[in-house]
Amino acid sequence: MPAATATKPYVIALEEHYADPAVLARTEGGGRGRMGALLDRLTDLGDVRLGEMDAAGIDFQVLSHAPSAIQQLDATESRQLARDANDRLHDAVDRNPERFAAFAALPTTDPQAAADELERTVSQLGFKGAMIHGRSRGEEFHDLRKFWPIYERAQHLDVPIYIHPGPPHPAMAAAYYNDYLQDHPFLSSAAWGFTIDTATQVVRMILSGLFDAYPRLKVIVGHLGEGIPYLVDRIDVSLNRPGGKPIAFKSIFSNHFWVTTSGHFSTPALMCALMELGIDRILFSVDWPYVENQPGMDWMQTIPLSAEDREKMLNGNARRLLKL
Q1: Is 287 in the active site?
Q2: Tell me, what CATH number does 179's domain have?
Q3: Is there a contact between 164 and 198 (Cβ–Cβ < 8 Å)?
Q4: Catalytic residue (one of 20, 116, 236, 287)
Q5: Is the pTM of the predicted complex or chain greater than 0.85?
């Protein structure tokens, strides 16, 4: 991988999405209703994507599949769909190895097969870890012990698992915000629902004992940590009030999690994450094509960091974590 030049830091973005056409075909409505006008950009792994990267000054993307049917289908179909999609993603990376790397999609409805697919993609295809979205089969958070073979394998391979939002639980949506969706259709997703659902997954992972079992497990969370850096002290103090089982919540979060800037270009939020986690655990991401590249790049020019720390965010931390 090239180094930064004298005038411009090398830029790695690592929550950058794509969509495999065969996977889309198994998604309700072919993905068109949910992804709409973004679909043509999501399915592109060539000139359109590279052109937008070049225009904004992004040198390298780590590609990951958008939320899809892979985690919702029966195990047999999910296994084959994930394997085939990962093979096609590998082909795309192989065509542009100086511009792309990849996170695997995993057939989580069969956790042992998901662990094996993680190993295959990392060991044979050179993938840098995997991305897991929301819940599996619509109901199951991934802290359940049935999913722990995935994390055991990730620790063994020394690769991170990226926890990414999926659609919020329908019962939560119905109770909390469906009555506002007509006027505010993104309330249940990026504006609020994604954060609540994903932050809940992170809290559940910490409470489950997962990181006691796998003390070298590495997890990435986007959107500057889904609000947890802001709340981590209150969560830690409240969980350790008399009458509960003590847990080193803040220590576990600080030692096992990395956060990215994906879709959250806020300097106050960044300062909070930096104060809680330190510069070495913050990584630049855009969340393309759901979010445009240029605003993220423009924002990075304004943040009050030294050149050395900005370089860590833009490429150094990703190089170390993903072994790029």
Answers
A1: yes
A2: 3.20.20.140
A3: yes
A4: 287
A5: yes
